[in-house]
Amino acid sequence: MPAFINPTVVAHLVLIFMVMNMLVLSSAFMVWMERKVCAYIQDRVGPNRVGFEGLLQPFADVFKLLLKEELIPKSADKLLFTIAPIISVAAALTAFSVVPFGTETTLFGLLREPLRLEVTDVNVAVLVIFAITSMGVYGIVLAGWSSNSKYSLLGGLRSSAQMISYEISYGLALAAVVMMAGSLSLREIVLNQSGYWWHIIPKWYVFLQPIGFLIFFTAGVAETNRAPFDFPEAEQELVAGYHTEYSSMSFGLFFLAEYVNMVTVSAVATSLYLGGWLGPFLPDWLGWVWFLLKTLALLFFYVWMRWTLPRYRYDQLMEFGWKYLLPLAILNLIATAALVIWLG
Amino acid sequence: MNPILFYVFAAVAVISSLLVVGQRNPMHSVMLLIVSFGGLSGLYVLLDAPFTAVTQIIVYAGAIMVLFLFVVMLLNAHTEDEVVPPTLGPHGMKVAVVLSLALAAEVLWALSRVGAASFSTDPNAAVAISSVARIGTGIFTTHAFAFEVTSVLILVAMVGAVVIARKEH
């Protein structure tokens, strides 16, 4: 047996495989949750035919998409048209690789070295997430351009402008947390949030950075192109925006990327502001349950918001991003810096 | 540094930058330039400078290239199907040759001055350089002047862009 096949390597490979599949499965689950919550908000029942309460509906949908014919428009740029959904999905799946979702574990003594519950621990994890998210925009922009259709192009243009505008606030909100934690590693940021004030209130950054959390989540919603900021695919104006010309599974890939991105933004927000896997009542090795619960709560909020708030107008979106969110983020950063210095 | 990985990343960076110049479609050029930045970023990781690597992706591959794409899409630049005669003219060509020779000489001179000695082999030195705190202190103390001058330069460019944009009204 070659030396590189040892329990640690195998455990890491299994971990990577699990995270990939969990992300894909969670996006299937999110589709179901979205349709169910939407249905209840609109006083309907929602999907309830395939599986228990329609839980298998997303799988039926994916199966249908896989069987559909793949169409590439005649005047499209074939290479970029094919690459675009791949970029979207790859960026979405990669971003999660630096998110820690639990403490170290030896799997009940099965492994000699403790295994960290995350795909990779980079000491600049926060920036890695930021970098990979900014790569995701290319999928949308290229899809919009290569389709050679006016609706797609407008969708792509809108999304690139939107992502550039909100990325700045997103980054500044991140910077405030990094300043407080004094580290760029997500694991250390989470560990910095352990403990309680007066034995009741957990020392999460959401209580120290309430404005930062709001900015981060708002910008995160805009970055993932979700309602009320879903301009790249505003149905009334743009048919379906950047993926108008896509069919079959390449359309499915954009869908997958959108949901995986939502999961990632929620998971990152959980790690940065809600104490990650830390929580009361459960033993340490079950920390990932807390992580899942917190992430799920944020994801529910995402869906809730979509079916509650109407879409902004495009100029309102730009005005909000540049004239309100950005100055607020800068003020928040300055205030945080002053506090960090003042309190040592 | 792993030599195989070095050659892979170096090849990606060099080949894709050569292809950038060779494309007729500006959109393909932009995409290849991003691939080239990715290769460079990989080299930074191999040099134990993850912060520089990530910054390379965020600033160049992320922010600046999105703006490039934006401009290409807005101007709706078409593929250069017809062969455009060179607009440089005979004098322009000469100037270009002289400038590129000067640049090549400059690079060679700089490389010969640096030599092999300054590439530290001390593993601790690399870790120290990669630490974000060290980079921050360096920028705001030793290199504070260069940092401020660069910000003024960017401010000038911004003011220039605003002036050009306003002229149309």
| Distance between the ends of chain B | 56 Å
List SSEs of chain B in N-to-C order. Answer: HHHHHHH
Give the N-terminus to C-terminus distance of chain A in angstroms. Answer: 54 Å
Per CATH, the architecture of the largest domain in chain B is Up-down Bundle
Apparent shape of chain A: globular
Describe the structure.
The complex is a heterodimer of chains A (344) and B (169). With 344 residues, chain A is mainly α. Chain A has one domain. Helices cover 64% and strands 2% of the residues of chain A. Chain A has twelve helices and four strands, in the order αααββαααββαααααα. A two-stranded antiparallel sheet of chain A has the order 1-2. A two-stranded antiparallel ribbon of chain A has the order 3-4. In chain A, helix 1 runs parallel beside helix 11 (287-306) and helix 5 packs antiparallel against helix 8. The longest helix of chain A has 35 residues, at 7-41. Chain A starts with 6 loop residues before the first helix and ends with a helix. Chain B has 169 residues and is mostly helical. Chain B folds into three domains: 1-80, Up-down Bundle (Four Helix Bundle (Hemerythrin (Met), subunit A)), CATH 1.20.120.1200; 89-122; 131-169. Helices cover 79% and strands 0% of the residues of chain B. Chain B is built from seven helices and no strands. In chain B, helix 1 (3-22) packs antiparallel against helix 2 (26-46) and helix 2 (26-46) runs antiparallel to helix 3. Chain B is globular. Chain B starts with a helix and ends with a helix. The interface between A and B is medium-sized, with 29 and 21 residues.
Comma- or semicolon-separated keywords:
heterodimer, A: 344 residues, mainly alpha, two-stranded antiparallel ribbon, 4 strands, globular, B: 169 residues, Four Helix Bundle (Hemerythrin (Met), subunit A), 3 domains, 7 helices
